[in-house]
Amino acid sequence: MWPPLLSLRKSWAGARPCSRCCRIRRSAISARLSSARNKKGEAWMDERMVVRIYRWGEEGEEPVFAFFPEEDGNDDGGRDYLLPEGYWVDSEDGAPFVRGESSACILHSHNGLPVLVDEKKKRAFLLERDRKIERMRERAGLTRADLAVALGTSQQEVFRWERYEVEAGTALLGRIARILGCKTEELI
Description:
By secondary structure, this protein is of the alpha+beta class. Helices cover about 25% and strands about 20% of the residues. The protein folds into two domains: about 10-130, no CATH class; about 130-185, Orthogonal Bundle (434 Repressor (Amino-terminal Domain)), CATH 1.10.260.
């Protein structure tokens, strides 16, 4: 098990990472959200980068977060998070880490959520999940009310799915994907 304070750059210095546990989802790392527009031609998201972060650890323990899956498969499969502006994913010897303008950053855990710490600037950011349903809804040019009517539910329920207050099941994600004109995998 990794220590609670995970500094990928320091932990992997000089190590030759294996291809399985250190792979980086290129699509997530290189995704620049600024080029996408909705039907009205408006930018639908800000220019922050999306990165997949894996949660390691047993149930009931304080989790450890990393940019790659745990070797024995004891992780959550990864979730996509938005990095703050001015931060991006870099790689040294195949080991991924987040870099700011001044230096490499580390991941902490706070109340079970990932926190990006920039020690050089003395700043910490509680990372926010990539709101895929909201992003795809805006890309399709629909309002929350439009999607709620199409699904036969309330705007409040749609809001809760978009903000991950309630996890939408796969059958529901399939219905949402059909309405938004995308694949179910794009919402997971």
